[in-house]
UniProtKB/TrEMBL annotation:
Its cofactor is adenosylcob(III)alamin. InterPro entries: Acid_CoA_mut_C (IPR006159), Cobalamin-bd (IPR006158), Cobalamin-bd_sf (IPR036724). It comes from the Bacteria. SUPFAM superfamilies: Cobalamin (vitamin B12)-binding domain (SSF52242). Keywords: Cobalamin, Cobalt, Isomerase, Metal-binding. This is Methylmalonyl-CoA mutase, C-terminal domain. Pfam families: B12-binding. The keyword ATP-binding does not apply. GO terms for molecular function: cobalamin binding; isomerase activity; metal ion binding. PANTHER family: COENZYME B12-DEPENDENT MUTASE, METHYLMALONYL-COA MUTASE, MITOCHONDRIAL-RELATED. It comes from Desulfotruncus arcticus DSM 17038. Residues 5-132 form the B12-binding domain.
Length: 132
């Protein structure tokens, strides 16, 4: 990446109004030297895609606690692909049932981080993937 900091968009799609976890992740990524853009609550997939393109990010990190992840996460991936930005790494986190994870990965979510995952694990995953 030639010394350029990794740029991450942290987003809360849908009607979920709980953002403490997203803010914890955003702070951990900042502390690790990444540039973080936080979109705030209640974003549509289209708004997230638009922000990702405008901010020229390397990673989109989605957080969902409402149970709508099976609809919202793939919609973001689809929107990025439609805008020729399918190379942006898309991650998901939140209350995601284990049985949903394989389907989400099949639909283009690179990795899912569930409650209890250490912030160090998230940081290391992103750094490892972007270094590839």
């Amino acid at each position: 990446m030639s010394g350029k900091p990794i740029r991450v968009l942290v987003a809360k799609p849908g009607l979920d109004g709980h953002d403490r976890g997203a803010k914890v992740i955003a702070q951990a990524l900042r502390d690790a030297g990444m540039e973080v853009i936080y979109t705030g609550l209640r974003q549509t997939p289209d708004q997230i895609v638009g922000a990702a393109l405008q901010e020229d990010v390397d990673v989109v990190a989605l957080s969902c606690l409402s149970g709508a992840h099976m609809h919202l996460f793939p919609a973001v991936v689809k929107g990025l692909r439609q805008q020729n930005a399918g190379d942006i790494l898309v991650l998901g986190g939140g209350i995601i049932p284990e049985e949903d994870i394989p389907d989400l990965k099949e639909k283009g979510i690179a990795e899912i981080f569930t409650p209890g995952t250490s912030t160090v694990s998230v940081v290391n995953y992103i750094k490892g993937k972007i270094a590839q």
